[in-house]
Amino acid sequence: MTDQPESRPLNPSSGRVLVLLDGSRLSLLALEAAAEIAAVRGAEVLGVFVEEVDVLRSAGYGFAREVGASSGATRPLDSAMMEMRLRGLADQARRSLEQAVGGRGLRQALKLCRGSVIHEVLGLATPDDLVVMGRAGWSAMPGSRLGSTARGLIRKAPGDVLLWTDLKPRQRNRVVVLLNDDQLENHRTLSAAMELARRHRQPLTVLVRSERAGNPDAVRAIEQQLAAHDASARIRVIPRASALQIARLLREESAGQLVLSRQCSVFDEHDMDRLVVELNLPITVTS
C-alpha cells in the first residue's frame, strides 16, 4: 500500500499528533480529539492505518473463522475478502481524516502500513509526538479492558499517549493528575495536566501517592511548581492504594480526565487494566 499524498511536507521535529485509525467507533472519536488538540497546538496530524499482518496470515488458513461482534455467528475468514475489507477501511480512514482535519487548516497525512501496529507506530513516533488512540478497538465498550495495542504503546511509546474514550470532558469535571511522591521532579506530567485544565477550563486536582501521611514536603514541591505557572490545584496526599481505591478517589474528585506518568507505580502493580475497567474517561500517559 502507498501513503496518501501530503498537502504540505511534514516536519517530525516539531511535535506532531499521531492518531491511530482502524475503522472502530473509538478510533473515529479519537480522531476528533486529535484534531482539536492539533488545532490548539498548531501541530501537524499524521493518521496511521495498519494492516495487521497476523490477521492477513490467519485469513490464508482454510480453518480460519471470524465471529460476528453482535451476532456471535461464525463464517469463513477469506483472505480476498479481508484484503477488500482493509482497503475499504483505509479509504474510510482517509475520508475521516480529511473531514476532521482539513477544515481546520492543519497539515495532515495518512500513513498506510502493513505489519504490527505497535511496531509500526514506534517506528513513526518521536519523543515530541503525542499518540492519540481509542483505548480498545472494534469491541470497545464502557468498562472494557485495555486493548493489547494500547497496553503496549503506553509502555513503549517515546512520548505521551492519550487513550480516548466515548465521553468528552465536561467543564464541571476535574483534570486529575496521579503522582508518586518520588516523581515530583517529573514536571512533564504536571505540565500536561495544567495544559489540559486550561484548555478545557476545568479545575485541577493533584493526587500524590505516599507512605508518609500528609507529606508536607511533597505538597510544598507541587505548590512551587503550580506557582511557577500561575496555576492552582487541590492537592491530596493519599496512601499507595489499589486500583479500585484510586478509582473511588477519582469519582470523589469528579474526574473528567486522568494524567499519569508511565513511571507511576500503577503500572508496576499491574493495576492499569483494573483502573481502565473501573473508569470511562480519557487517560494521558506521559513519558
What order do the helices and strands come in, and which of them pair?
Elements: E1 17-20, H1 25-41, E2 45-52, H2 53-59, E3 65-67, E4 74-76, H3 79-101, E5 108-115, H4 117-124, E6 130-134, H5 148-156, E7 160-164, E8 174-180, H6 187-200, E9 204-209, H7 216-228, E10 234-238, H8 243-252, E11 255-261, H9 265-268, H10 272-278, E12 283-286
Parallel strand pairs: 1-2, 1-6, 2-5, 6-7, 8-9, 8-11, 9-10, 11-12
Antiparallel strand pairs: 3-4, 7-12
Helix pairs in contact: 1-3, 2-3, 4-5, 8-10
CATH topology of the largest domain: Rossmann fold
The residue fraction in helices comes out at: 25-40%
Strand order of the largest sheet: 5-2-1-6-7-12-11-8-9-10
Largest sheet properties: 10 strands, mixed
The gross shape turns out to be globular
Q: Can you tell me the residue ranges where pLDDT is under 50 for at least 5 consecutive residues?
A: 4-13, 138-143
What's a concise summary of this model?
The protein has 287 residues and is an alpha/beta fold.
What can you tell me about this protein's structure?
The chain contains ten helices and twelve strands. The protein is 39% helix and 23% strand. The protein is an alpha/beta fold. The strands form two sheets. The chain has a ten-stranded mixed β-sheet, with helices on both faces. The chain has a two-stranded antiparallel sheet with strand order 3-4. The model is unreliable at 4-13 and 138-143 (pLDDT under 50). The protein has two domains: 13-65 and 75-163, Rossmann fold; 174-286, 3-Layer(aba) Sandwich (Rossmann fold). The radius of gyration is 20 Å and the shape is globular. This is Universal stress protein. Belongs to the universal stress protein A family.
